[in-house]
Amino acid sequence: MKQLILSATGLALGLSLSAQNVNVINAYNYMQDGKLEKAAEFIEPATQDAKTGAQEKTWRYRGNIYRLIALRDDAALQAKFPDALEKSVDSYLKAVELDTKGSYKTENTSFLGALQVAALNGGNDAYIAKDFSKAVTRYEMSQRIAAKFGQVDTNAIFNKALAYDAAGDLPNAVKAYREAISAGYNDGKVYVFITSLEEKQGNKDAAITAAKEGLQRFPSNKDLRLQLTDLLIQANRSEEAEASLKEAIAADPGNPNLWFGLGNLYDKMAGETKDAAQVKERSAKAEDAYKKAIAADGRFFDAFYNIGVLYNNRAAGEIERCNAIKNDTEYLKCKKVADELIMQALPFFEQAHAINETDAMTIQQLVKLYPRAGNTAKYDEMKAKLAKLQ
């Protein structure tokens, strides 16, 4: 009786094994006939069986079936198997793991290479469609396939960072950009992005550190240099900002933006002190830097406008000094100096207006200055322009 029970059990095991082998064969045949849904139906039980689930062939067939589903131009079929690409990749990776003799290494590797390209392109398509979560998944899949063969997909890592960035997931974006750097993505813009994201999160010290780190590797990156300068200015680290800009100018003396940045810095430093001598010195340095920006770019609107403002500020300081003078003769002398300073602002505001005729702030300055210059016609013209803009 005991022997009969054992025989029956053995028969049952034999039938089970036979059934799963048949499932693998059926799955293959349906795949060959292009009936992929049926092929998927038969292959899945075979992967769960202790015997057929341990065979390379089972997983290779499964990879083939889901690869064909993922790459077929059939929206209805893909809707039924939305994770076909993931299943295909997992299957081939499993097949590679089980293929201890390397009998199907070329075939599995070739298919995985094709899927890596498909995953990367799928990530790009998802990014364009603003499905950033799917984009990250696809890029990570491409990255995972590459890693299986001892390779690093730097494009996938960088694109993953862009997807996190676009999705507003700033901490993961910074992490992924850092991962791209570690993987060998050799481009200064990565540090520009990290610096910007750290600043957005309020991590000013981390942003400064990132910018400095980037400039060590990419010393000629102008965007990083300007970012660093701006951050140092915000942090009231003016001397560091000045040194940074001077270093950049030494490397690129014809860059108008660098000269303008230096002018802005001296402007700010002039406003940070009450010492008249320091104000005068820093204001003069600012004007010189702005003029060098103009020499490099004759249509630099902001540089012309800021020089006009410099003269206005000097005039305001002089008027404040005049108001404290009790002697009429001395007062008139002082006022004459102030008036001359105001008039020196006029040509710079005129140049700014010539570059941008719709800037309301420039027109407002000209409305104030033309009566002082006795130019009624220009005053009327500017008043009319200002009225149209308001």
Describe the structure.
The protein is elongated. The protein has a domain at about 300-390: Serine Threonine Protein Phosphatase 5, Tetratricopeptide repeat (Alpha Horseshoe), CATH 1.25.40. Helix 7 packs antiparallel against helix 8 and helix 18 (about 360-375) packs antiparallel against helix 19. By secondary structure, it is mostly helical. Helix content is about 80%, strand content about 0%. It has 19 helices and no strands. The chain has helices at about 1-30, 35-50, 55-70, 75-80, 85-100, 105-130, 130-150, 155-165, 170-180, 190-200, 205-215, 220-235, 240-250, 255-270, 275-295, 300-325, 330-355, 360-375, 375-390.
Q: What's the quick description here?
A:
The chain has helices at 2-32, 36-48, 56-71, 75-80, 84-98, 105-128, 132-148, 154-167, 170-182, 189-200, 204-217, 222-234, 238-251, 256-271, 276-296, 301-323, 328-355, 360-373, 376-389. The protein has 390 residues and is mostly helical. The longest helix has 31 residues, at 2-32.
